[in-house]
TrEMBL record:
<feature type="domain" description="Thiaminase-2/PQQC">
    <location>
        <begin position="15"/>
        <end position="215"/>
    </location>
</feature>
<comment type="pathway">
    <text>Cofactor biosynthesis; thiamine diphosphate biosynthesis.</text>
</comment>
<dbReference type="GO" id="GO:0009229">
    <property type="term" value="P:thiamine diphosphate biosynthetic process"/>
</dbReference>
<dbReference type="InterPro" id="IPR004305">
    <property type="entry name" value="Thiaminase-2/PQQC"/>
</dbReference>
<dbReference type="GO" id="GO:0050334">
    <property type="term" value="F:thiaminase activity"/>
</dbReference>
<dbReference type="GO" id="GO:0009228">
    <property type="term" value="P:thiamine biosynthetic process"/>
</dbReference>
<dbReference type="GO" id="GO:0005829">
    <property type="term" value="C:cytosol"/>
</dbReference>
<keyword id="KW-0784">Thiamine biosynthesis</keyword>
<comment type="function">
    <text>Catalyzes an amino-pyrimidine hydrolysis reaction at the C5' of the pyrimidine moiety of thiamine compounds, a reaction that is part of a thiamine salvage pathway.</text>
</comment>
<keyword id="KW-0378">Hydrolase</keyword>
<comment type="similarity">
    <text>Belongs to the TenA family.</text>
</comment>
<dbReference type="InterPro" id="IPR016084">
    <property type="entry name" value="Haem_Oase-like_multi-hlx"/>
</dbReference>
<dbReference type="Pfam" id="PF03070">
    <property type="entry name" value="TENA_THI-4"/>
</dbReference>
<dbReference type="InterPro" id="IPR050967">
    <property type="entry name" value="Thiamine_Salvage_TenA"/>
</dbReference>
<dbReference type="InterPro" id="IPR027574">
    <property type="entry name" value="Thiaminase_II"/>
</dbReference>
<protein>
    <recommendedName>
        <fullName>Aminopyrimidine aminohydrolase</fullName>
        <ecNumber>3.5.99.2</ecNumber>
    </recommendedName>
</protein>
Length: 221
């Protein structure tokens, strides 16, 4: 069992509430209201800006070149791949990159991103990567679970296919391996509870992020 599996086991209720959130189920079934997806995607673009900063912070917090390269790889994947998906999908609704960058951050976006950044500022690279893990590894798992139900005219096909694709799955697998190596170096029995709490909080903030999308569609009706 690697450290990711141990953290997931220890926080299983929070993990499950995140990866099996009603937003995820409706996304997979293709029944998610478009308004919910649009709000989610707009906020997720703003999320990714802060998430890029968190990975830049991971470079700053690194004591080895190998750790720096891991964070740089994830940072590159966010800036050069993942954000392009958002811009591409939003362009279909007439939203430009500028529109996205001008949007106001929802409290759920602020809460999650600033929590992750604070874990990195107040803690070390293990704390920061424990806060980042539910995000990267969680999305890879969610998309892999949804991919078998994809069909040609699925409304969210591109989103699911991108996160289920080889490139993103590779980023997540690397992050998982890196977290394990960080745990070997830095995790002590005394720290385990705190690292679990960071992981669990990030899972809860992920669930809140999905909920924000659902709630916005409810308000629009
Ligand atoms: C909220 C959130 N969590 C995880 C990911 C995966 O990078 C994302 N794009 N957005």
């Amino acid at each position: 069992m690697d450290i990711f599996d141990r953290l997931r086991q220890a926080t299983l209720a929070d993990w499950t509430a995140y990866v099996e959130h009603p937003f995820v189920r409706e996304l997979g079934a293709g029944t998610l209201p478009q308004a919910a997806f649009r709000t989610y995607l707009e906020q997720d673009y703003l999320f990714l800006i802060q998430f890029a900063r968190a990975n830049a912070l991971a470079i700053y917090k690194s004591r080895t070149l190998a750790d720096m390269r891991e964070a740089k790889g994830t940072l590159g994947a966010i800036l050069d791949d993942e954000m392009h998906l958002h811009v591409r999908l939003c362009a279909r609704w007439g939203m430009t990159r500028d529109d996205l960058e001008r949007a106001a951050e929802h409290p759920a976006t602020v809460a999650y991103t600033r929590f992750v950044l604070d874990c990195g500022q107040s803690g070390d690279l293990l704390d920061l990567n424990a806060a980042l893990a539910p995000c990267v590894i969680g999305y890879a798992e969610i998309a892999r679970a949804l991919a078998p139900s994809l069909h040609d005219d699925h409304p969210y096909r591109e989103w699911i296919a991108d996160y289920a694709g080889e490139a993103y799955q590779g980023v997540a697998a690397r992050a998982r391996g890196h977290l394990d190596r960080l745990a070997e170096r830095y995790l002590t029995p005394a720290r385990l509870g705190q690292v679990q709490e960071i992981f669990a909080t990030a899972c809860r903030l992920e669930a809140d992020f999905w909920q924000m999308g659902l709630d916005s569609a409810r308000r629009a009706h």
